[in-house]
C-alpha cells in the first residue's frame, strides 16, 4: 500500500474519534457537571530509506478535558450543591474514590449523603457524610460545613487533583485521579445551586461540521487513489 494511503487512513481514524468526541459533548450539553472534551493530534515521523522521503502519520490518542466553570443554575434544593471556583466533590465509587462536579446529592434511607448513582459523598478525609434523619433545618456553608438544626455534623470535601493533566474520565461526569488530590482552599460551595455543563453547543456544532468536511475530503482522496491504482494495474496487465 502507498505511504500516502497509510497517512490518510491514520488521519481518517483520528477524525472519526474526534467526531465521536464532539457528538458526546453535544449529547451532554444539558448534563449537570459535565466537562467538555477536546482532542490533540500528534505526528509520527519515520525515515523510509536513505534516499526516500520520510513518512508522516497522524495520531489522535490524547483527550483533553475543559475545566472551565459552567453556569450556575438555582434549584432551591437543600442538597443541591455547586462549586464556585476550582475543585471537585469527592465521592466513593464501587471501585475507588472519584472526583466530580455534579452536585445533585440526596440523603439515603440511613441518612448518608449520596450521589444520583447511590455513591457516598465524602469529606476531605475520605469519610462518608451523614445527615441525621428527621433534621428540620439543614444548612451548608460556603466552606462545606453541614449543619443540622444548628449543629455541625460534617464538612463536604472539595479537592483538587494533584496533576490535572493525569485525570482520566471515569464516566460522563466522574474522573479518576491516580496521582492523588489535595484540599481546594479557595473553592466555595453554593447550596441550592447546580453547575451546568460547560459545553458550548454552537461551538461544538461548528466543530462537528469542520471535522465532517475534513473526513469527507480524506475519503474523496482515498477513493481517487484507489481508482488511480486500479487504472495502473489494469494498464500493466494488458
What does this structure look like?
- The chain has 238 residues and is α+β, with helices and mostly antiparallel strands.
- The protein has 2 domains: 3-67 and 199-236, no CATH class; 72-195, no CATH class.
- It has 2 helices and 17 strands.
- It has helices at residues 3-27, 201-236; strands spanning 37-46, 55-65, 72-74, 81-84, 88-93, 96-100, 106-107, 113-114, 138-140, 145-148, 151-155, 158-161, 168-169, 174-176, 181-183, 188-191, 193-195.
- Strand 1 (37-46) and strand 2 form a beta hairpin.
- Helix 1 (3-27) runs antiparallel to helix 2 (201-236).
- The protein is elongated, with a radius of gyration of 25 Å.
- The model has no long low-confidence stretch (mean pLDDT 88).
Low-confidence parts lasting 5 or more residues at pLDDT below 50?
none
Q: What is the end-to-end distance?
A: 22 Å
Sheet of most strands: 6 strands, antiparallel
Q: Helices and strands: which structural class?
A: alpha+beta
Task: Estimate what percentage of residues fall within beta strands.
Answer: 25-35%
Write down the Rg: 25 Å
Shape: elongated
The total count of strands amounts to: 17
Helical segment count: 2
Instruction: List SSEs in N-to-C order.
Output: HEEEEEEEEEEEEEEEEEH
Give the SSE map.
Blueprint (H helix, E strand, L loop, with lengths): L2 H25 L9 E10 L8 E11 L6 E3 L6 E4 L3 E6 L2 E5 L5 E2 L5 E2 L23 E3 L4 E4 L2 E5 L2 E4 L6 E2 L4 E3 L4 E3 L4 E4 L1 E3 L5 H36 L2
Antiparallel strand pairs: 1-2, 3-17, 4-16, 5-6, 5-12, 6-14, 7-8, 9-10, 10-11, 12-15, 13-14
Amino acid at each position: 500500500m502507498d505511504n500516502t494511503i497509510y497517512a490518510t487512513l491514520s488521519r481518517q481514524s483520528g477524525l472519526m474519534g474526534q467526531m465521536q468526541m464532539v457528538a458526546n459533548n453535544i449529547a451532554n450539553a444539558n448534563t449537570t457537571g459535565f466537562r467538555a472534551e477536546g482532542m490533540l493530534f500528534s505526528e509520527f515521523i519515520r525515515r523510509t530509506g536513505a534516499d526516500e522521503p520520510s513518512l508522516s502519520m497522524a495520531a489522535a490518542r490524547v483527550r483533553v478535558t475543559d475545566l472551565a466553570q459552567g453556569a450556575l443554575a438555582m434549584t432551591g434544593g437543600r442538597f443541591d450543591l455547586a462549586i464556585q471556583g476550582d475543585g471537585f466533590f469527592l465521592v466513593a465509587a464501587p471501585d475507588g474514590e472519584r472526583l466530580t462536579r455534579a452536585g445533585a446529592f440526596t440523603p439515603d434511607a440511613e441518612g448518608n449523603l449520596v450521589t444520583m448513582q447511590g455513591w457516598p459523598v465524602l469529606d476531605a478525609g475520605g469519610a462518608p457524610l451523614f445527615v441525621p434523619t428527621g433534621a428540620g433545618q439543614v444548612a451548608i456553608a460556603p466552606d462545606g460545613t453541614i449543619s443540622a438544626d444548628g449543629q455541625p455534623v460534617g464538612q463536604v470535601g472539595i479537592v483538587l487533583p494533584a496533576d490535572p493533566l493525569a485525570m482520566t474520565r471515569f464516566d460522563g461526569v466522574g474522573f479518576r485521579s491516580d496521582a492523588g488530590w489535595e484540599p481546594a482552599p479557595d473553592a466555595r460551595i453554593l447550596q441550592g445551586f447546580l453547575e451546568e455543563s460547560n459545553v458550548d453547543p454552537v461551538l461544538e456544532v461548528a466543530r462537528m461540521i469542520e471535522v465532517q468536511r475534513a473526513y469527507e475530503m480524506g475519503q474523496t482522496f482515498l477513493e481517487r487513489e484507489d481508482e488511480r491504482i486500479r487504472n495502473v494495474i489494469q494498464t500493466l496487465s494488458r
